[in-house]
Amino acid sequence: MWKVWYIALIGRPNTGKSTFLNALIGEKVSIVSSRPQTTQRTIMGIHTHDGGQMIFLDTPWVHESIQEINEYINTQAYKSLNSADVIVRFLDPTRPHGEEEKKIDTVLATLTKPIIRVETKKDLPCGYHHPKIDVHISSSTREWFDALIEKIQPYLPEGEYLYDPEYYTDQDMELRLSEIIREQLFLCLGEEVPYASFVEITEIEDTEWLLRIMAYINTESDSQKYIIIGKGGKKLSEIGMKARMHLEDIFGKKVFLALRVKTLKNWRKNKAILEKLFPKR
Ligand SMILES: Nc1nc2c(ncn2[C@@H]2O[C@H](COP(=O)(O)OP(=O)(O)OP(=O)(O)O)[C@@H](O)[C@H]2O)c(=O)[nH]1
Ligand SMILES: [Mg+2]
């Protein structure tokens, strides 16, 4: 019987897991920013190549604060760890092997699965060295990917493709759109605001030539809402314009994006909202 093999990308926030997945697949599958904890939901990316198909799970790492939303994020992390057959552990040489890395080591030591240790960002000049590295990569220059694929390959079954080779992610349109808009929150806004916001898509009209989207940015307080809107609506137009351009790039058609902001107090404690944002797989 065919067995599905999942490869979980695991590592401290900001180690470059999402950047790697996008670079490997050659499509924007997972959002990226220089801020920690950008990825909140596990994102599936499928890499189809001559030797077969690899199903990657870009996994958020566990968050330690006691906020309700973190329980949902942590569930994503643990589920991915459980369903993975192989773990690719990302280690960032621009940061020392500190407490956070040691905690991840401890969690991974409890698992009986193959773990491949990867040092990322090899294009950057100096760095710290992490213990027991199997391979290094640079996602910026797309170098040494083959070496990593070769390390993963022996653990995978040979055989037919599980998914259509054209298929590279399991995300539906609504999730992809909301993630691309959410990415702009991380890129355009400082501090806590992106973490206190979520994007809700209320309308999608997708034709051959035009993608028309209506979306809300929900945030926790009126003051955050005014930060997102900005003076004279400038910030919101910047977020909308950048998201629209990125979406046009991804989908290869004209995009019309109507973006509004609203306050939804305490949404990070609201079970109904959290369950919608983090559906059980
Ligand atoms: N120079 C360089 N920068 C990289 C590389 N890979 C990732 N980055 C940068 O590192 C930052 C974090 O990358 P992400 O891919 O968002 O990291 P992540 O591990 O997915 O982070 P979380 O989603 O927060 O867990 C971004 O600013 C990337 O541009 C790389 O190979 N070289
Ligand atoms: Mg990420």
Structural class of the secondary structure composition?
Answer: alpha/beta
CATH H-level homologous superfamily name of the largest domain: P-loop containing nucleotide triphosphate hydrolases
Distance between the termini: 22 Å
CATH topology annotation of the largest domain? Rossmann fold
- From N to C, what is the helix and strand string? EHEEHEHEEHHEEHHEH
- Proportion of strand residues: 15-25%
- What is bound: which ligands? guanosine-5'-triphosphate, magnesium ion
Total of domains? 2
What is the spatial order of strands in the main beta sheet?
2-3-1-4-5-6
Average pLDDT value? 93
| Anisotropy-based shape | globular
Named CATH architecture of the largest domain: 3-Layer(aba) Sandwich
- Helical stretch tally: 8
Poorly predicted runs are: none
Q: What share of the residues lie within helices?
A: 25-40%
Task: Describe the protein in words.
This protein has 281 residues and is α/β, with parallel strands linked by helices. It is 33% helix and 22% strand. Helix 5 packs across helix 7. The mean pLDDT is 93. The chain binds guanosine-5'-triphosphate (GTP) and magnesium ion.
Features:
alpha/beta, 2 domains, GMP Synthetase, Chain A, domain 3, binds guanosine-5'-triphosphate, 33% helix, binds magnesium ion, six-stranded mixed beta sheet, Rossmann fold, 8 helices, three-stranded mixed beta sheet, 281 residues, single chain, globular
Quick synopsis:
The protein has 281 residues and is an alpha/beta fold. Helices cover 33% and strands 22% of the residues. The protein is built from eight helices and nine strands.
